């Protein structure tokens, strides 16, 4: 179908052309702001139909080609004759303004003329494979105006930006328009903007901030510099929103960071008296937070900061340890204060990690590494594992008496203990010391808070596994069961009809849960023997096939001391009671006599006698009255003894078994290493030496840090016992012997 | 023999003349190789010398010469006689090589089986022949592989019956004997170290690994790998060498 009007006259080129020219002139005048009437609809229509006709007429009066060229020609001529000169005769900001305005005009002109010439776009441009009218118009501007102007424009823009950086006011809207112009002149791509402007802009930015950095770093302290750097980055970001294209932002920020932060990093962070270490030392959390913010975005930027953090925390920790050592050598007593102070240190720097350093893993790691270093140091020969166990012991004992400790304090102290334990490598030492002290608390102190004890065990179990706490949990369970036995026994005694005799309770301990204790064949005073027998009989009724082993060293006795001035109740251990009861029948006994009568060992007897005759309470008189017990001493009941209290506890200090604990644990470690090695080899069958050693260390690391030499010795032992053998070809490899 | 044709009979005779084997053996071998003389020679020489009754008797006589009066073993006295017959000192290392050939279980005694078996393995049945073999046996010590076997063997041989480890003095004596054949510059330091610092018996693993150490590690310890699988005693030896400034770290 052919659209057209029937019987219309042919429009010849010259006529059509001049109609168009007329309109174009009118349009130009309108756009340039010259006095001119607006287009009315008829004029508009006339233009449109003229062109329409000229395009639809049959050849040779089909003027599509010429019309297209004319369209282009209009713009080209305008650009060359009018637009370009008008821009070029101006300078600086005025030039930019003209450039921007001419661009706007061009856009409108293209729009209008495209309407007039619309029909060309309908079929012609596509068929002839030519750019459409809009494109053609724009291209003309680009080729004949933009290309000649952009260089100068760029210079002006950059100069203006520089002005703004120096805190002077500039016309941001203008810049935005001009930069938009750059973008749009790239047609579909950003390459005009990038190559004609952005590239130069970024270079200029870099050198600008480079100069700033050099001068700041000379004159300013680290915090001051950082504030300026932060401010600069902020301003540059704002600049993007005001007039730069958003694509520029990442490149711009990176460029500024590189110059302000990366290249000066060493000088900045290590600045004397105000750099990273100084800020840490002086607790300048705000500045540190800023440092984090600034360096966070830079790849590997935080590493020097976290390193400084680690070193600082390590040195603080080492100082604590040293102070404790010094105090200990002066006082001869190691304060558990040090544990409390380590906990506080941990808390302090954890706050740093969560707040200044936004929970970043690098800083968690640094904190951990720092603590692992000084938490494994000894203080006056006592390992931190033992100190921590002592701390727990004291804490639990105190919390019973001191009701001011509310639940949340107790809870948080327990949590802190568990956190601290994580840093200690010899966890098995802690477990053993803790267990020993727990035993004393449960058995000797009697008054223990089951709930608190269970809470800490639950947390330890959650953190370190069931195997860590199973024995201790067993101990607590035993105490619960013991209560049942107490009442059961009482009923039994009641039912048996025998006279009650003395008040007597037995606590049954499951071997294996509790630390191992020496037994001794103490000769009990007669009064006590029958009690023991009746309990044994009772226990037989409850469970058969179990052997009861009596551990007198852990027992407690309440004795009535009939002294001259007044009777006093004495709370003593069973050993002490046995010694004292011996004086019920005789006034005076020698050391030797006591030794034979009671069947105690020398070490124990000496300890007991010392506690009764040379310590705070002199229940017995010793001859000669020296400060130490010798085998030739003799003893007498001190009837003259008295005290203002009606009931006193005569303590029997425990033997220092620290060395034994360490030995026991080391022995256990040998078994653990053996078991681990065999387990690994059983599954791997063939394994190289290095791999075996490192996997063994890895598996055991939850409990302790095995010594490589010890592992080697165990491997050799296993070879000797024919669990493993060396590979004949390669002695560095082991094979499992089934 | 009569059933054979002339050619084959000749072959048998030739075979016997060259190898010294019995006719019966010659017949067997030639039959097995389809009467190919060359192949028969190959077979014959690659086989161990088969027992023959004559050999056995001579070996038994020899054994009886040295056997102890009261037990069915050759003991220390018998060994002294053997050594003097062979004209070697009892401490001569060649006796160790001989024991190795015999696969002797313990030093200073040979069971009948060990004695007889060892001599057969060497292919000798008289003292004279054994004496002739002595230089060959000495040369075996120069062979890398054989020395290794002899060295490892000597641990089990030198230790007390029923013990797992080798007494230190014995071990040192053995090392000095063995390493006289193969220079090891650190030998004296090793012995000093053991007497100074260790003073306990030597385990099998340590014994075996020491040879490896002597073979592979430079006297200057430049290629010693501290992370390697060396027994801890050897690691301690290295520490000792550094301590005593025998070697620069």
TrEMBL record, chain A:
SMART domains: CULLIN, Cullin_Nedd8. Residues 383-613 form the Cullin family profile domain. PROSITE patterns: CULLIN_2. Keywords: Isopeptide bond, Ubl conjugation. It comes from the Eukaryota. Belongs to the cullin family. This is Cullin family profile domain-containing protein.
TrEMBL record, chain B:
The keyword Chaperone does not apply. Keywords: Ubl conjugation pathway. Pfam families: Cullin_binding, UBA_4. Signal peptide: none annotated. Residues 54-242 form the DCUN1 domain. SUPFAM superfamilies: UBA-like. PROSITE patterns: DCUN1. The keyword tRNA processing does not apply. Neddylation of cullins play an essential role in the regulation of SCF-type complexes activity. PANTHER family: DEFECTIVE IN CULLIN NEDDYLATION PROTEIN (PTHR12281:SF2), RP42 RELATED (PTHR12281). This is Defective in cullin neddylation protein. It comes from Eruca vesicaria subsp. sativa.
């Amino acid at each position: 179908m052919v659209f057209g009007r029937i019987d219309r006259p042919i429009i010849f080129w010259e006529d059509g052309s001049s109609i168009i020219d007329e309109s174009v002139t009118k349009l130009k005048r309108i756009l340039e702001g010259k006095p001119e009437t607006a287009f009315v609809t008829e004029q508009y229509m006339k233009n449109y139909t003229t062109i329409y006709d000229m395009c639809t007429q049959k050849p040779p009066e089909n003027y599509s080609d010429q019309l297209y060229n004319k369209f282009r020609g209009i713009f080209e001529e305008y650009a060359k004759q009018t637009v370009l000169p008008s821009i070029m005769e101006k300078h600086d900001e005025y030039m930019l303004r003209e450039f921007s305005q001419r661009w706007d005009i061009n856009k409108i002109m293209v729009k209008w003329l495209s309407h007039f010439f619309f029909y060309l776009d309908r079929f012609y441009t596509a068929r002839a494979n030519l750019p459409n009218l809009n494109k053609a118009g724009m291209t003309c501007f680009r080729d004949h105006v933009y290309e000649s102007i952009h260089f100068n424009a760029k210079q002006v823009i950059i100069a203006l930006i520089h002005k703004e950086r120096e805190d002077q006011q500039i016309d941001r809207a203008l810049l935005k328009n001009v930069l938009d112009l750059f973008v749009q002149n790239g047609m579909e791509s950003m390459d005009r903007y990038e190559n004609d402007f952005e590239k130069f802009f970024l270079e200029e930015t870099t050198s600008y901030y480079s100069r700033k950095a050099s001068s700041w770093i000379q004159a300013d302290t680290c915090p001051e510099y950082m504030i300026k750097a932060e401010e600069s980055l902020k301003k540059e970001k704002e600049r993007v929103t005001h007039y730069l294209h958003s694509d520029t932002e990442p490149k711009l920020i990176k460029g500024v960071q590189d110059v302000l932060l990366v290249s000066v990093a060493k000088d900045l962070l290590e600045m004397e008296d105000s750099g990273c270490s100084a800020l840490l030392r002086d607790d300048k959390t705000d500045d540190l937070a800023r440092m984090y913010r600034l360096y966070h975005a830079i790849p590997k930027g935080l590493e020097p900061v976290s390193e400084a953090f680690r070193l600082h925390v390590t040195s603080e920790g080492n100082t604590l340890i040293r102070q404790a050592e010094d105090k200990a050598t002066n006082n001869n007593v190691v304060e558990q204060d040090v544990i409390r102070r380590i906990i506080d240190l941990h808390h302090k720097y954890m706050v740093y990690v969560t707040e200044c350093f936004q929970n970043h893993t690098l800083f968690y790691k640094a904190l951990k590494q720092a603590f692992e270093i000084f938490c494994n140091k000894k203080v006056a020969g006592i390992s931190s594992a033992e100190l921590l166990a002592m701390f727990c012991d004291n804490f639990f004992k105190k919390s019973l008496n001191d009701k001011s400790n509310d639940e949340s304090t107790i809870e948080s102290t327990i949590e802190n203990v568990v956190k601290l334990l994580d840093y200690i490598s010899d966890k098995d030492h802690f477990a053993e010391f803790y267990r020993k002290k727990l035993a004393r608390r449960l058995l000797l102190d009697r008054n223990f808070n089951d709930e608190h004890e269970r809470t800490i065990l639950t947390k330890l179990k959650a953190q370190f596994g069931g195997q860590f706490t199973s024995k201790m949990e067993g101990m607590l369970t035993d105490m619960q069961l013991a209560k049942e036995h107490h009442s059961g026994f009482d009923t039994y005694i009641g039912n048996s009809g025998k006279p009650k005799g003395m008040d007597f309770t037995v606590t049954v301990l499951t071997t294996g849960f509790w630390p191992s204790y020496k037994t001794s064949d103490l000769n009990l005073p007669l009064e006590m023997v029958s009690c023991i027998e009746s309990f044994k009989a009772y226990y037989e009724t409850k469970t058969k096939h179990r052997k009861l082993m009596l551990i007198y060293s852990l027992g407690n006795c309440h004795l009535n001391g009939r002294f001259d001035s007044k009777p006093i109740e004495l709370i003593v251990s069973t050993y002490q009671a046995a010694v004292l009861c011996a004086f019920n029948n005789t006034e005076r006994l020698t050391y030797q006599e006591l030794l034979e009568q009671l069947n105690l060992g020398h070490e124990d007897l000496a300890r007991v006698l010392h506690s009764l005759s040379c310590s705070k309470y002199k229940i017995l008189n010793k001859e000669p009255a020296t400060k130490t017990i010798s085998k030739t001493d003799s003893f007498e009941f001190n009837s003259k003894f008295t005290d203002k209290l009606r009931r006193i506890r005569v303590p029997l200090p425990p033997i220092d078994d620290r060395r034994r604990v360490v030995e026991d644990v080391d022995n256990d470690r040998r078994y653990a290493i053996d078991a681990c090695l065999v387990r690994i080899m059983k599954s791997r069958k063939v394994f190289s030496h290095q791999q075996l050693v490192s996997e063994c260390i890895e598996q055991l690391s939850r409990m302790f840090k095995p010594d490589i030499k010890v592992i080697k010795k165990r491997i050799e032992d296993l070879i000797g016992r024919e669990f493993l053998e060396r590979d004949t070809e390669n002695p560095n490899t082991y094979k499992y012997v089934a | 023999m009569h059933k054979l044709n002339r050619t084959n009979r000749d072959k048998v005779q030739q075979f016997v003349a060259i190898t010294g084997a019995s006719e019966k053996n010659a017949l067997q071998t030639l039959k097995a190789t389809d009467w190919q003389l060359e192949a028969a020679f190959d077979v014959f020489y690659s086989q161990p010398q088969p027992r023959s009754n004559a050999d056995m008797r001579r070996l038994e006589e020899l054994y009886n010469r040295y056997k102890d009066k009261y037990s069915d073993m050759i003991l220390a006295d018998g060994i002294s006689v053997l050594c003097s017959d062979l004209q070697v000192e009892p401490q001569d290392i060649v006796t160790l090589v001989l024991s190795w050939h015999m696969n002797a279980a313990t030093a200073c005694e040979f069971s009948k089986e060990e004695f007889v078996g060892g001599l057969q393995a060497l292919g000798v049945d008289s003292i004279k022949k054994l004496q002739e073999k002595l230089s060959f046996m000495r040369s075996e010590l120069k062979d890398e592989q054989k020395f290794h076997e002899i060295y490892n063997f000597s641990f089990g041989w030198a230790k007390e019956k029923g013990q797992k480890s080798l007494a230190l003095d014995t071990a040192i004596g053995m090392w000095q004997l063995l390493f006289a054949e193969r220079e090891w510059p650190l030998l004296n330091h090793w012995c000093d170290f053991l007497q100074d610092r260790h003073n306990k018996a030597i385990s099998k693993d340590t014994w075996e690994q020491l040879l490896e150490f002597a073979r592979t590690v430079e006297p200057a310890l430049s290629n010693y790998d501290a992370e390697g699988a060396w027994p801890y005693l050897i690691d301690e030896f290295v520490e000792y060498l550094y301590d005593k400034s025998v070697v620069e770290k």
